[in-house]
């Protein structure tokens, strides 16, 4: 009973700033916006636990769990699947990752970036529109490259050489 009271008191203490400032240091999500501690509009600055699925527009800190959805994120992200619609800054590790833009590291089996990648992609399949950095995987695809691709299949759609196996570079 005392332990339950302590946990409840801690959650209430952490939740108080969220109601006043629309910011929370802890978000726990079970099933998206309908089954999580705080609404998606609440900014997370701290830890977000995605026991199944969490959705917040803005996350800064550590994001851990099964499935994660955000608009913007500056974090270390460790999930089975990661989806950041706009911009991601930090380290993202998961089996599947889809991002609007990335500055940092994106690692997993299947990695996609809709726009700019500034940093590293490591996986089985890597895709980004504009790469400034490195892609390492079995299949790497980009529209434009300022960096190095290492993989079995390396594709640069707007490059002078659109396909080159093992190592491809453009500066």
Task: Spell out the blueprint of helices and strands.
Blueprint: H1 2-21, E1 23-29, E2 43-93, E3 96-107, E4 110-151, E5 153-156, E6 166-170
Parallel strand pairs: 1-2, 2-3, 3-4, 4-5
Antiparallel strand pairs: 4-6
Count the domains.
2
What best-fitting shape do the alpha-carbon axes yield? elongated
Helix content: 10-25%
Please state the structural category. Answer: mainly beta
What can be said about the biggest beta sheet?
A: 6 strands, mixed
Report the C-alpha radius of gyration, rounded.
Answer: 19 Å
Average residue pLDDT: 91
So how many helices?
1
Describe the structure.
The chain is mainly β and about 170 residues long. The chain folds into two domains: about 25-85, no CATH class; about 95-170. It has one helix spanning about 1-20, and strands spanning about 25-30, 45-95, 95-105, 110-150, 155, 165-170. Strands 1, 2, 3, 4, 5 and 6 form a six-stranded mixed sheet that branches. The model has no long low-confidence stretch (mean pLDDT about 90).
């Amino acid at each position: 009973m005392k332990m339950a009271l302590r946990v409840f008191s801690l959650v209430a203490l952490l939740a108080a700033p969220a109601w006043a400032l629309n910011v929370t240091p802890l978000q726990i999500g079970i099933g998206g916006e309908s089954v999580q501690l705080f609404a998606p509009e609440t900014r997370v600055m701290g830890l977000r636990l995605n026991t199944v699925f969490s959705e917040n527009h803005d996350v800064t800190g550590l994001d851990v769990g099964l499935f994660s959805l955000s608009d913007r994120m500056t974090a270390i992200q460790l999930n089975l699947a990661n989806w950041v619609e706009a911009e991601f800054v930090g380290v993202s590790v998961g089996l599947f990752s889809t991002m609007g833009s990335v500055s940092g590291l994106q690692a997993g089996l299947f990695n996609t970036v809709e726009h700019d990648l500034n940093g590293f992609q490591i996986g089985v399949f890597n895709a980004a529109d504009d790469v400034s950095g490195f892609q390492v995987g079995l299949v790497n695809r980009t529209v434009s490259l300022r960096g190095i691709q290492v993989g079995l299949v390396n594709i640069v759609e707007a490059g002078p050489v659109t396909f080159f196996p093992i190592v491809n570079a453009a500066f």
